[in-house]
Amino acid sequence: MEINRLSDVVKSWLYEAGEMVLEALNAPLKADEKSSRKDIVTNVDKEIEQFFVSKIIEQFPEDRIIGEEGASRNHDNDTQRTWLIDPIDGTLNFYKQKDYFCLMIAIEQEQGDSLGFIYELMRDEMLWGGPKVGVYLNDKRVSMVVDQPLRDGLININSGMVINNRYNAQQIIKQSLGIRMVGCAGIAIKEVVLGKQVAYMSYLQPWDYAAGRILAESVGIVVAAIDEEQLTLTKRQVVVFATPATYQEIRKIKEL
């Protein structure tokens, strides 16, 4: 499928899923713990992931699928396209606040055809695009990043990293204009892509950052593991999204 047509199809799925989420918010939510009381999954996470999986299988049955809530398909296939799904990113926010969450889909393809989608439903803001088509907030083209240094910008760092001063996080904060926390990777990445913040650093699974990575790199944001290992689809890593200047400063500070 041609890349612009594929973009339109996926956006239509996200808008349809958004309507499902809004309807679900009118009923009691059911939540189960995963790894801890702070790591939960709701009935809506599962329903939305299955909705996306069914859409993908219907149109692209040979494609590889990786989903946060257990969806896994065609891992051994020699396919050129992989879908990464985070049905509700910021699930704890979704469950407790009914806000500050998003829906994310990444399509990893060869030859620069990858696409990322971050849909912040409660603000009706869709950040989408890729290296070939550009990046858009709804219908407005997003400009290439302004390369601001750490001292001139706000940053977002995982709260646990700050409390335990992992990677010298407290010193990184002191060198910046200030810290903001939202508890949703997709929204935090969106702020960096839109130039509202200069960095985001957190412990992330592949589905947490895949869509954001495609979008961020398309506008000149550096996306890298803090330990400079290669990013992989197989494990949780500490990932940094930052302007080039800020990324270099974070690298230096975290070694102090």
UniProtKB/TrEMBL annotation:
Signal sequence residues: none
Record SUPFAM superfamilies: Carbohydrate phosphatase
Pfam families cross-referenced by the UniProt entry: Inositol_P
One Gene Ontology biological process: signal transduction
Cofactor(s) needed for function: Mg(2+)
Domain of life: Bacteria
Chain positions recorded as Mg(2+) binding sites: 68, 86, 88-89, 208
Entry-linked InterPro entries: Inositol_monoP_metal-BS, Inositol_monophosphatase-like
Keywords from the named record: Hydrolase, Magnesium, Metal-binding
Any one GO molecular function term: inositol monophosphate 1-phosphatase activity
Name of protein: Inositol monophosphatase family protein
